[in-house]
Amino acid sequence: MDSEISNNGADVGKLSKDELKVYDRQIRLWGHDGQKKLSSWNVLLIGLQGLGAEIAKNLILCGVHSITLKDPSDVSILDRCSQFLIPPDSEQRNRAKASLTNAQKLNPNVKVTADTKPIDEEDEHFVTKFDIVIATECFPATYKKLNENCRKNQVKLFIADVFGLFGYFVQDITFEHNLYHEIFPNYDQRSNVSENCPLPYYLTSALLRFQCESNRKPNPDTCEEDVEELKSIISSFEQITDIEAYDEYFGELFCEMSPTTSIIGAMVAQAAMNTIMDKTVEDFNVFFYDHVEHRGQYFKL
Amino acid sequence: MAANIVGAFKPSMQNVVKTSKILLVGAGGIGCEVLKNLVLMGFGELEVIDLDTIEISNLNRQFLFSKDSVGKPKSHTAKESVLRFNPNVNINSHYGDIMDTKYGSAFFNKFKLVINALDNKRARSHVNRMCLSCDIPLIESGTMGYSGQVEFIKKDFSLCYECSPKPVPKDYPMCTIRNTPKEPIHCIIWAKFLFSQLFGENTEELVSMEETEDETEEKLSARDWAKANNYDGQKLFKKIFYDDIDYLLNMRDLYKSKSIKPRKLDYVYLNGVKSEYAHEEESKILTLPQYISMFIDSITSIKEKLDQSKKGYLNWDKDDDDFMNFVVASTNIRSVIFGIEIKSHFNIKSMAGNIIPAIPTANAIIGGQIVIHGLRVLEGKYPRCQTVYLRGMPNHKGEIIVKDKIVQKPSPTCTTCSTEGHIVLAVNTFTFTIRQFEDLVLRQRLNIVAPDVLIDGRMIISSDEDDELDLYSKTFSEANILHGSKISVDDFLQNYRVQMLVHHKMKVSDEQPEFELFNNSDDVDKEDDFEQEEYDDECHIDGEDHKFIYVKQEESSNEEMANESDEDNFSSVEEELEETELFVDAGAVNDASETCIKITNVCSITEDNTLSIIEEQSAEVPADSQDENNEDDAKDNFEIEDDAKDNFEIEDGAKDNFEIEDDAKGDFEIEDDAKGDFEIEDDGNETNLELKRKAEDNVDTTETKKSRSSTDE
Predict the structure, then answer these.
(1) Which of A88, A135, A216, B536 is 20–30 Å from B518 (CA)?
(2) From CA A209, how far away is CA A108, in angstroms rounded?
(3) Would the ipTM clear 0.90, i.e. be above it?
């Protein structure tokens, strides 16, 4: 495994005086016990674009024990729209490695590691090394495999993506709800989407199908063609009658935009931390942030 | 940056983002998130202002700062930090107070949009007025714990920040603080007064008695006595916790009909004790000897700081460990004496510092929503900028980020944004002074910075010192301001005007505040049925014109009353929310603040044991004293003669929870809530907290509610 370790974390379960001072304002919310649990937590974070950076930031600031930043790709120009951990002029570097220094700076008490091996190449026990797995910016096929694997090993999983100003996440924390590909069955283009779902669900389904068909996310360079393609995917969904309702969304679906990476990144990080604070939202498994309606809503799908 | 990438925005927006000049007020928890987002979006012209420096407790969420930057100005540091990921943005950072007159209309007029990421009502009101005056769209925001909110304010289009009344903080009668504490918060306030009396600048609220020096027989104030004794910890311990208590007990009638009565500490501690406490966790309840040691040690450390202080006094600060130890030890020793529950260091700090819990995720969500609102504002889509709430937990529909259905219209009776609005000022015109009017009504309540006040064309207060008006010591009636007088108040800086109608009102009940403001004369009388609340069982006094001291506890950053946790944004909007109804106003929230205690009235107990008025005063402790009518005799309002008559009545009704273990070890047992779960008892401060929920809503806000009025960003 190609990894770098930049610092040693603190002892598990003990909070130094220094940590107590840094974490004071959050300990007043979730208590010393919550903080101690958090400081024993090992997180795997897959995908270090803007959304990954936000999730990493929140978890590192809050003081998890360790976080592994896993991303096989190099920095892209689009990362500049939302990836604040990567310094300018890092174009040729691996994203996780380029993020490492600034990620570590956020909190020296956390053990931060960069890992460049693709998750698809890890064996199925890899996830058991972690208390929680959070995946972003992968392809639906990768999410499917990861979800099945985490379910099998009973490792809590969050999957999140941001498209422009729109974003969603899926949580599998009770191991009871539908799997990722059961919620969004269009990854292989064969099955169709569910009925009677909210608008953001169909938008997400269309975006994921686009990703499967074009082997990429919608892109600012090709925004016009991509919008046409998305429209045609959406109109192919039998359940949808009011295609015009989607028009307002199309202009803002390209690359990860920081306001929404900020929102989804925080929602995911908090939902993940809530799983050890006895504050879990268990009845739902999908969350959408609708940037047109300013609505962040959980669903059970 | 997004704006440099063709296609990332709608074409019409790309240039707008690059060129629109934006002002960000506050570089704390929300401010850091907003600044990051603005820079990543490609906003090219930014100014950021903040008057605070970085503290270690900021670092869990104010991610543009690191340990190396503690003590540095937030605004400059935040700027340097974001330039590291985008060097191509034009940021102008100001280390200063947005309420400073140098940031007037000319400054505000530069901006297309102003974003508030503040932690206090005063600055929020001020920026609100500046933006209304300059007709600049404003985005207002706040977080508290898991919750938060984003609000859009535009002149003549939406509610302004002041369209809905903000709750006034809870009052505590001064006699409770001095003589009859019942709850931990009473002892905490007392401990902060004690700090102020011994080390602070403002020594008006005296809680420790005068002392006679042996040789001279001269009476010395507790401060002078402490100085004369070189701040000897043991002697101070004896004076404060034995002699002062004796003094109270000698006032026979003080506790005559009350269940509350101090019980003297065992004399084994008289000369102090040594008991290690440094290793103990902050959430643990310690033993009496440990608190006594802590008290004595803290005096020693604070004395050194006092000696080094150039000003010759110290301002209490919850983030100073010695100051905090002093308050914790004093509070708990007093609690033992009065049979009140002991609180951990952790809990006392929450209450003494009015700390609002704060986490990075809530700030990030609010910071993201602010920038989305900002985009809508710059697109001109005002109707799409409804108030957005971040809930602590999802409602039954699963919604956790919820908006109002529509942008709320301005309130026609708002005294700030409507010309129709006027205020009815209900006061006793025979006793209310011009100074009280300026300090309490204009500056503290109405957040006016530079008032000019006219009555029938006659100027009574001028913002121009050259005018040399000196009516401050006059009462309203002496200045010929009577029932029905119309007062016109103008703040040139804020371009804020308000008309006030004077309504003369005698006080019939003691817990009435010095003044009250109403929107309508008809409301004045309705209010006369006062809720008696607990003051009743506390200090019931017959007669008409008695007054009490009220102590208000609020957050403040800097010397102002600031850090109210903001509760304050809490607005009527919630009614529009279908099922949300909560809300916190998440205001602010910030921690870099000092708590200040305000006293709005002063009561005194005079020789014949009636409570009588000693010149009302307004004092901020330990803040800046704007208050020169420091009546000498107010210092003595502590005396009660022994042979007094009995028209000083205190109702019973409190339980006799008064028990102190006398065993030699001096351990005392108190229920251990040292789990460290966030818990603030009902110290009454809950009023500060505007959390309302329906039954369907969840636990977490209840927690926050308990945690109440503490404060972040």
Answers:
(1) B536
(2) 41
(3) yes
